[in-house]
Design goal:
binds iron/sulfur cluster; two-stranded antiparallel ribbon; four-stranded parallel sheet
Length: 153
C-alpha cells in the first residue's frame, strides 16, 4: 500500500499551526486514507524547531521572515529537509500539503508584505519535495490526488 505525506495540521491530533488552532481535514477521501494507515504526518515548521503557537511568517523571495522581522529561513529549510527525509524513507506516492502556508503551500502563498495579499507560489517544503520529483497536491485537490493514486496502484 502506497503511503502519502500530509501536512500535520490537516492530519489533526496535535496542535502545530502557528495560531495553535486545530483544523483537521474532514473530507471522506482524506479520512479513508487516514483509516487505512497511509498517511505520514509532517509539520516542517515544528521539525525546524519553531514553537506552537508562533508568530506568523511569510516567504520573501528565498528568505522566510516572521511578522516581527525575525529571519527564520534556517528553521524552515531544516524542517523541509526533515519532511523530505520522511517522504523518501516512506517512498510516498505524493504529498497533500496545506495551501497558503510558507512551508506547505503548493499553489498560493502570501506575498511577503503581511497585508493579506496572496500570490501564486509555493512554500519551502513543497518546493523541496518537488525538486526531488515528489508530486504535491493541496487539500483542495483530493479528488485529483485520489485519481492519481488509483492510476499507480
Ligand atoms: S508547517 Fe505545514 S503542517 Fe505545519 S502547521 Fe504549517 S501548514 Fe501545517
Amino acid at each position: 500500500m502506497k503511503k502519502i505525506l500530509v501536512s500535520e495540521c490537516l492530519y489533526g491530533g496535535r496542535a502545530v499551526r502557528y495560531d495553535g488552532k486545530l483544523i483537521p481535514e474532514t473530507d471522506p477521501i482524506f479520512l479513508k486514507w487516514k483509516e487505512e494507515g497511509r498517511l505520514i504526518p509532517v509539520c516542517p515548521e515544528v521539525f525546524g524547531g519553531l514553537p506552537t503557537p508562533r508568530i506568523d511568517s511569510q516567504r520573501v523571495g528565498e528568505r522566510v521572515v516572521m511578522r516581527d522581522g525575525t529571519d527564520v529561513t534556517k528553521e524552515y529549510r531544516l524542517g523541509a529537509e526533515e519532511a523530505l527525509r520522511l517522504a523518501l524513507e516512506n517512498d510516498v506516492a505524493f504529498a497533500i500539503m496545506k495551501q497558503k502556508s510558507p512551508s506547505c503551500g503548493s499553489k498560493i502563498i502570501y506575498d511577503g508584505t503581511f497585508s493579506g495579499r496572496k500570490v501564486p507560489g509555493q512554500g519551502v517544503a513543497a518546493e523541496l519535495l518537488r525538486k526531488h520529483e515528489i508530486k504535491v497536491f493541496g487539500e483542495e485537490d483530493l479528488q485529483e490526488a485520489a485519481e492519481y493514486l488509483a492510476s499507480i496502484e
